């Protein structure tokens, strides 16, 4: 992630640019979904199918996607579900009944709704799961001061991802990840290589504020700034200053090259979970997280195939720096996505979805006759 400057009152504050602000919106009317408790899994976790009359809502209800009226095949149904992980409620979506399993992992401040343009397409020939990482979206947001130290880390999220595959997917899976979600996927694949069949990374976070990437003379300043945000009222005041629809829209227009894709629906998708208690504490905890793994440390340890795709107009994660990841022996290809920003899956799904399908098909054939249960 790149260094940026955010003006807060009369101060200029440096911080690491996330892919989104995690924030709050003015409380608007959200259509109430209809709950259908009709679908259970053998593992005892309840899958709640939620429906709404509104197309592609940004709420926790079932997502309905507008389709081509000339198509005779209805889109796969998307189920909005809850999984209990270590006593915490984790929200995820699933769709599709056959084919390889895909787990979609969002970036910082986002949630599984950010894959709304990918799930119905990929679910036609895959079993697709999109998860809200703990602390984000509609998953629980435990206060980092009330749980163990260093709770919101890539090790925690990697463990969540692997446990999700074991408990819910009940299969090996391909991880499809954006930005810091790429670090989550890499960490999970390194920790339990028997679970991940392949990694598809979109504009993986460079983590430019990592302590190892800072000059020695700059580290005390960054540490002091992070302490100011985390331990004083300045942090929450700063959060409130960017937690507005106008700020979020402005930031999204920076990271999306095609700003016509920054719709009111997208703004609400990112903002609405920010209304949940604890969102501000997760935000402050993560921007003060300068340790943990780097992608260049994890990539050499990965045992599964890796494909990296990068929007060449990403203003936050430079493609010039990202290209270096294509040189790792574990990376089979580095694909440039022309005229695309930081979130290719949402800005250019017409480019991303076929790449995902091709990657998964290519690496599913070699294990087609092998058992994939875990």
UniProtKB/TrEMBL annotation:
Pfam families: Abhydrolase_1. Residues 100-349 form the AB hydrolase-1 domain. Transmembrane segments: none annotated. It comes from the Eukaryota. Gene3D superfamilies: alpha/beta hydrolase. SUPFAM superfamilies: alpha/beta-Hydrolases. This is AB hydrolase-1 domain-containing protein. The lineage of its organism: Eukaryota, Viridiplantae, Streptophyta, Embryophyta, Tracheophyta.
């Amino acid at each position: 992630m790149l260094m940026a400057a955010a003006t807060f009152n009369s101060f200029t504050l440096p911080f690491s640019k996330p892919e989104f602000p995690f924030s709050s919106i003015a409380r608007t009317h959200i259509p109430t979904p209809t709950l259908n408790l009709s679908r259970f899994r053998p593992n005892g976790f309840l899958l709640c199918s939620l429906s709404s009359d509104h197309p592609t809502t940004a709420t926790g209800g079932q997502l309905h996607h507008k389709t081509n009226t000339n198509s005779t095949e209805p889109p796969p149904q998307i189920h909005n579900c809850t999984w209990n992980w270590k006593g915490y409620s984790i929200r995820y979506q699933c769709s599709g009944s056959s084919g390889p399993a895909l787990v979609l992992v969002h970036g910082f401040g986002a949630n599984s709704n950010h894959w709304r343009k990918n799930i119905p397409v990929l679910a036609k020939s895959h079993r697709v799961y999109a998860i809200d990482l703990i602390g984000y979206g509609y998953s629980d947001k435990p206060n980092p001061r009330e749980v163990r130290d260093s709770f919101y880390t890539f090790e925690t999220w990697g463990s969540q991802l692997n446990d999700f595959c074991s408990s819910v997917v009940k299969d090996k899976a391909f991880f499809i990840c954006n930005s810091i979600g790429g670090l989550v996927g890499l960490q999970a694949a390194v920790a339990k290589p028997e679970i991940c069949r392949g990694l598809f990374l979109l504009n993986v976070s460079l983590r430019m504020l990592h302590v190892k990437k800072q000059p020695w003379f700059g580290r005390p300043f960054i540490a002091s700034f992070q302490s100011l945000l985390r331990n004083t009222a300045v942090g929450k005041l700063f959060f409130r200053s960017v937690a507005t629809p106008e700020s979020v829209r402005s930031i999204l227009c920076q990271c999306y090259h095609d700003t016509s894709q920054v719709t009111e629906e997208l703004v609400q998708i990112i903002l609405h979970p920010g209304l949940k208690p604890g969102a501000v504490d997760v935000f402050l905890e993560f921007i003060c997280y300068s340790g943990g793994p780097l992608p260049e440390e994890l990539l050499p340890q990965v045992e599964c195939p890796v494909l990296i795709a990068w929007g060449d107009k990403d203003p936050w994660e430079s493609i010039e720096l990202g290209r270096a990841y294509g040189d790792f022996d574990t990376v089979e290809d580095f694909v440039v996505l022309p005229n695309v920003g930081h979130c290719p899956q949402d800005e250019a799904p017409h480019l991303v979805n076929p790449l995902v399908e091709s990657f998964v098909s290519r690496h599913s054939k070699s294990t087609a006759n092998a058992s994939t249960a875990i």
